[in-house]
Design goal:
The protein has twelve helices and 13 strands. With 262 residues, the protein is α/β, with parallel strands linked by helices.
């Protein structure tokens, strides 16, 4: 492997750029991941690599992970500890970094399973929430996640919080949310808008057989009025005590559990 020692190297600068900037990720069509486990998960999930960087210490400490990555990546480099610190977005870097090609499908009624179960995130802003929701969606067996606005799914914090689920579970993007919801509804799927309004139908009391798309809204403002109006019904999670609402990832977990329980 070729060695890189100059922090100003264009390959290093690109990696740091796509790590830090959603705009850079979009314009370059790639994203950044780091860590032995996450990078090896990407290799096993069929993610397409642009290039990979390893410190000498990582090559020695994580040989199995390194082999999995290098078997999928043609452009690999050994970097200094100084460069490792420049690339790392964590407090204790493991010395393995990869730049990968972005791949996100556009949500379309024709590619969504008519009898599938999906969680739809409308303008969710916190990358940790997004990652946690996708991780739970994979664990519970949902068919996919649809993201409309909000946090970039390739935000490094979202990728870490998902523990690799964002690289494995089908994730779709939607810029025409109302149009998408109407299209899947016309195919017979139930579309749900979640709300803290206790007067709405309780998620644990409705029939969720067949295809379901459930919308979770922005942390501060919830599901938008336009989206609510495009859904089949509004649903709520029954709550006791004085709490008025739940954290987005917690609410999504309960909604997804109810979707899959029956």
């Amino acid at each position: 492997m070729e060695r890189l020692s100059n922090r100003a190297n264009s390959k290093i600068k690109l990696a740091a750029s796509v790590r830090d900037s959603a705009k850079a990720r979009r314009s370059n069509g790639c994203f950044f991941i780091e860590g032995a486990r996450l990078c090896s998960d990407a290799a096993q999930s069929g993610v397409e690599f642009v290039r990979a960087f390893f410190t000498d210490e990582a090559l020695e400490k994580y040989p199995d992970y390194v082999r999995q990555i290098t078997s999928r990546c043609d452009e690999c480099y050994v970097v200094t500890q100084e460069i490792s610190l420049k690339l790392s977005d964590t407090q204790n870097p493991q010395g393995i970094f990869c730049v990968c090609k972005s791949k996100i499908s556009v949500a379309d009624a024709d590619i969504i399973k008519g009898n599938g179960k999906y969680i739809l995130l409308e303008r969710v802003q916190d990358p940790s929430n997004l990652g946690a929701i996708v991780r739970t969606a994979e664990a519970l067996g949902l068919d996919g996640v649809i993201v409309s606005g909000g946090c970039d799914i390739y935000n490094p914090k979202a990728l870490r919080a998902s523990m690799g689920s964002l690289l494995r579970l089908p994730v779709y993007g939607s810029s025409d949310l109302v149009g998408f919801l109407k299209s899947v509804s016309n195919r017979g799927m139930i579309t749900l808008a979640s709300t803290p309004d206790s007067s709405c139908a309780k998620i644990n009391e409705i029939d969720l057989k067949g295809g379901v798309v459930c919308v979770v809204g922005n942390e501060g403002n919830g599901v938008t009025r336009e989206t609510c109006e495009a859904c089949t019904m509004r649903v709520t999670i029954p709550m006791s005590g004085r709490a008025e609402s739940l954290n987005a990832s917690t609410a999504a977990a309960i909604l997804m559990w109810e979707m899959m329980r029956r």
